[in-house]
Amino acid sequence: MNAERVLIDGSAGKLEVVINDPGPKRRGIALIAHPHPLYGGTLDNKVVQTLAKAFHALDHVAVRVNFRGVGGSDGVFDEGHGEAQDLLAAVSFVRGRYGSLPLVLAGFSFGAFVQSTLVSELNPMWMVLVAPAVGRFKLGTVPANTLVVHGEQDDVVPLSEVFEWARPQKLPVVVFPGTGHFFHGCLVALQRLVANAFPR
């Protein structure tokens, strides 16, 4: 999976973006958001990389963004508001390059929260939220076909909080037994789940 690392213009300065392009067979764009910047979250996080691999294998342009203040990106942490602008800048860039392909939004932990704030604006054809940080940030309503994945033994975001958020939406939650927040030992299974659940 070839990776292209570029700097694009964002509202807080330059943004570091990694693009995995499947080539002429591309059928969509998958924008993937990383976990909390103040707790070591970057676009190179293993769960984020796993999501990129999954979507690249599904012939999607996999796009990962280092939020402002992370890696080669300018700016400072902005509680999710500026980070949403970072993702919008990335969408604008890749649509300028690849056209208006169908858009998938995916996010891990804090990244899932940021993606949830963009649903009405971007109208994605599908969403994948892994270990969404529902107790720490206010996640809104997401599309009914959203894939929500959580670890049974998540000690960062308790599974019970995810159920409380999902229950009013009648939103299914896929639970990985015996797994914590970072899905150690389960990344291959996570990639397989995304591939099998992809809307066809």
Q: Element order, helices and strands?
A: EEEHEHEHHEEHEH
Helix proportion range: 25-40%
* Termini Cα gap: 23 Å
Number of strands: 8
What is the spatial order of strands in the main beta sheet? 1-2-4-3-5-6-7-8
- Overall 3D geometry? globular
Number of domains: 1
Rg of Cα set:
15 Å
Structural class: alpha/beta
Low-pLDDT regions: none
Number of helices: 6
CATH level 1 class label: Alpha Beta
Percentage beta strand: 15-25%
Mean pLDDT: 97
Major sheet summary line: 8 strands, mixed
CATH homologous superfamily caption = Alpha/Beta hydrolase fold, catalytic domain
Q: Return the CATH architecture.
A: 3-Layer(aba) Sandwich
- What is CATH's topology name? Rossmann fold
Indicate the topology.
Elements: E1 4-10, E2 13-20, E3 28-33, H1 46-57, E4 60-66, H2 81-98, E5 103-108, H3 110-116, H4 119-122, E6 126-130, E7 147-151, H5 159-166, E8 174-176, H6 187-197
Parallel strand pairs: 3-4, 3-5, 5-6, 6-7, 7-8
Antiparallel strand pairs: 1-2, 2-4
Helix pairs in contact: 1-6
Could you walk me through the main structural features you see in this protein, from its secondary elements to its overall organization?
With about 200 residues, the protein is of the alpha/beta class. It has a single domain, classed as Rossmann fold. Helix content is about 30%, strand content about 25%. The chain has 6 helices and 8 strands, in the order E-E-E-H-E-H-E-H-H-E-E-H-E-H. Strands 1-2-4-3-5-6-7-8 form an 8-stranded mixed beta sheet, with helices on both faces. Helix 5 links the parallel strand 7 and strand 8. Helix 1 runs parallel beside helix 6. The protein is globular. The chain starts with a strand and ends with a helix. The model has no long low-confidence stretch (mean pLDDT about 95).
